[in-house]
Design brief:
With 309 residues, the protein is an alpha/beta fold. The protein has twelve helices and eleven strands. Helix 5 links the parallel strand 4 and strand 5. The chain binds beta-D-ribofuranose (BDR) and calcium ion (CA).
Length: 309
């Protein structure tokens, strides 16, 4: 069993990643969920996290993180995720509790209170995690791994070379990648292969409340994906959770990865040193391929568990 903290900006794919993590308590003990401004403002993504956690009657502490990046103003993604940041489903009002409005401090206290090491999962811009590592460097020895969705060593989605989460806060990503803590990167190289088809989405209908929630999330997400040229729907953030559930689903390679932080065309680009003799030690395991059938199976299995069918 692995203790994890999920830092996220829900976000359709963040929401699905949260659900799958919660459906596997024998493998993943979710110590906390923390939010970060990204797909939408911190108020909106926190409301979305509350809605998801309340929907499945979760009992996981929720803490509010940073409004925006370390240096630049926040760049949100309403084109992909809608005005709420998680358009599609309707949620009833709920009183899901917020345990702290200082996610960085809450993460620190939670990690230090554990006997063993904790795995961090970063599903949005890496601002909270970078602040944690910079403010409390003693925490590093208590972090087993940081499993992130972000980047890509072949191309981007926000720009030709930069993926959204890294593009929003490249300075934070640079701090995380150079921290010395083991980073596993589910970048676009693998996450765009981690898709569900429209037929698979349609098959979620009339199977239970959580299936319906994910159906409504994915219907919106599939529709919005069309403007970017997608027919199928990559559930990017779920890769960072599935790697923890079953790393054999993935193949990848360790590289030295750095991030472009200059104000230039390639700001936010993640560059892997792919030379035969790289100048610096490998700091990131870059996931590059996935067994898509196993991925979709783990999603469907998680939903069946949550709906008790
Ligand atoms: C990433 O950007 C966000 O829009 C998604 O939630 C995911 O974390 C994909 O580039
Ligand atoms: Ca996300």
């Amino acid at each position: 069993m692995r203790n994890i903290i999920i830092d996220c900006d829900p976000g359709h794919d963040d929401a699905i990643a949260l659900l799958v993590a919660l459906a596997n308590p024998e493998k993943l003990n979710v110590l906390a969920v923390t939010t970060i401004g990204g797909n939408q403002t911190i108020e909106k993504v926190t409301k979305n996290a509350k809605n998801i956690l309340a929907y499945v009657n979760a009992n996981v502490p929720l803490a509010i993180g940073q409004e925006g990046p370390l240096v630049k103003p926040l760049n949100t993604a309403p084109e992909a995720h809608g005005d709420t940041g998680m358009d599609g489903p309707y949620f009833k009002d709920n009183n899901y509790p917020i345990v702290s409005d200082n996610a960085v401090l809450y993460m620190y206290q939670t990690i230090m209170a554990q006997e063993g090491r904790v795995t961090l999962v970063g599903l949005g811009p890496l601002t909270n995690i970078a602040l944690l590592l910079k403010t409390f460097p003693e925490v590093k020895s208590k972090i087993e791994m940081i499993s992130i969705m972000g980047g890509g060593i072949r191309r981007g989605n926000m720009t030709a070379t930069a993926e959204f989460n890294i593009y929003v806060d490249p300075e934070a990503a640079k701090i995380v990648f150079s921290s010395g803590v083991q980073v596993v990167m589910s970048g676009l190289d693998v996450t765009e292969k981690a898709y569900v088809t429209l037929d698979e989405i349609e098959s979620l209908q009339n199977r239970g409340e959580v299936h319906t929630l994910v159906y409504e999330l994915l219907k919106f997400y599939n529709e919005s994906g069309k403007q970017f040229g997608f027919v199928d729907s990559p559930i990017h953030d779920l890769c960072a959770i599935c790697y923890l559930l079953d790393p054999t689903m993935f193949t990848g390679k360790r590289y030295h990865v750095d991030v472009v932080t200059d104000d230039c065309m390639t700001r936010g680009m993640t560059i892997a040193d792919r030379r035969l003799k790289p100048a610096q030690v490998e700091n990131v395991l870059v996931l590059e391929d996935i067994d898509r059938e196993a991925y979709v199976h783990s999603l469907f299995q998680a939903l069946a568990r949550l709906d008790n069918i």
